[in-house]
Design brief:
The protein is mostly helical. The chain contains six helices and no strands. The protein has one domain: dinb family like domain (Four Helix Bundle (Hemerythrin (Met), subunit A)). The protein has helices at residues 3-16, 25-29, 34-37, 47-65, 86-109, 127-152.
Length: 153
Amino acid sequence: MNLTAQLAKQLRTAYSGGNWTGVCLKDALTGLTWQQATKQVNSFNTIAKLVYHINYYVGPISSVLQGVPLAAHDKYSFDCPPITSEKDWEELVNKLWADGENLASLIEKLPDSKLEEIFADEKYGTYLRNITGVVEHIHYHLGQIILIKKLIL
């Protein structure tokens, strides 16, 4: 298996399971209501905001893999639209699944040699750094989601 296929698999397991950590977004989010996802605990971000934030970076990375210039700004990464119904919550989660699979498919199509190239701008490092970084980012916030979920359930 080439490296890009392994990276795509690693990304997919963060979403759906089978990874080394034993946790995944699917298990953490399944069965959560919109009220639970938007419940404020202390000064923590809500689960819904964390889901939005996780997915915020997936789209721009996917765009760069498709040859589109990078267009993302950290200051907007927690600007989750209001979640006021089960439909709103389901749309946010469904977008998470679709965008994650899209990114995994794009990663699989990359030749391994692309991983050493500069990603969008030299200050962002290589494609490899950004792809592994998005997986690390998912796991980091997944841990927060799991802890918040334990506090609200």
